[in-house]
Amino acid sequence: MGISLTWVAVEALPADEALLRLSLVKTAKDCVYPFKGVASHTLPNDWFLVAAQRCDHRIANAESMSALSKGCRAVACAIEEHVNFASVELWRDGARVWHVQHQGDEDNENISSQGLLPQRFRELLATVEPEDSENLDGHFHMDIPLILAKELCGFRHDESNADFDRTPFEELAELKTKSSWWKPWK
């Protein structure tokens, strides 16, 4: 089946402020990756990670990323492995700077991009392995968004890191509970 995941990371913003901007709250419960629901983890170099099961979670939508990135940088990444989909976006000061996406169910060598892309994107694209390559040390089109995300904030969902893996994720909950359709006053 593969991983279906959305994650965002924010630089130099206190964890409590990042969670408030995303309308999330800590639960004081630990969990391990992969997990169900939404969880957070501190990353090296002053980055804070929030990850959610499902590729289309609201934490990475434009409204959330605009709020999260005010006064700082934030990265949004979405992965749906079973259809070879990966995307990454860099946001700064409430606006999207660039976006890179691979949608392998349309074309295995498909890659689209927008914005002021880093030079690294062109380097990765120039050295990508063809679809039928057996060079597992190289990278493929789906890897490009994941490599760019890792180079920004130090996290990639499918790589292990001994220092990172020793510390569990912390479960999160929605700050506001959704009202029931039959109890709109709640």
How would you explain this protein's 3D organization?
With 186 residues, the chain is of the alpha+beta class. The chain is 20% helix and 34% strand. The chain is built from 5 helices and 9 strands; from the N terminus they run βαβββαββββαααβ. It has helices at residues 15-21, 62-68, 119-126, 143-153, 162-165, and strands at 4-11, 24-31, 38-43, 47-53, 73-80, 85-92, 95-103, 112-115, 169-174. It has a 9-stranded antiparallel beta sheet, with helices on both faces. Strand 6 (85-92) and strand 7 form a beta hairpin. The longest helix has 11 residues, at 143-153. The mean pLDDT is 91.
Structure at a glance:
This protein is α+β, with helices and mostly antiparallel strands.
How many helices? 5
What kind of sheet is the major sheet?
Answer: 9 strands, antiparallel
Give the distance, in angstroms, between the N- and C-terminal Cα atoms.
Answer: 37 Å
Shape: globular
Descriptive keywords:
186 residues; 9-stranded antiparallel sheet; 5 helices; alpha+beta
Question: Which helices and strands occur, and which strands form pairs?
Answer:
Layout: E1 4-11, H1 15-21, E2 24-31, E3 38-43, E4 47-53, H2 62-68, E5 73-80, E6 85-92, E7 95-103, E8 112-115, H3 119-126, H4 143-153, H5 162-165, E9 169-174
Antiparallel strand pairs: 1-4, 1-5, 2-9, 3-4, 3-9, 5-6, 6-7, 7-8
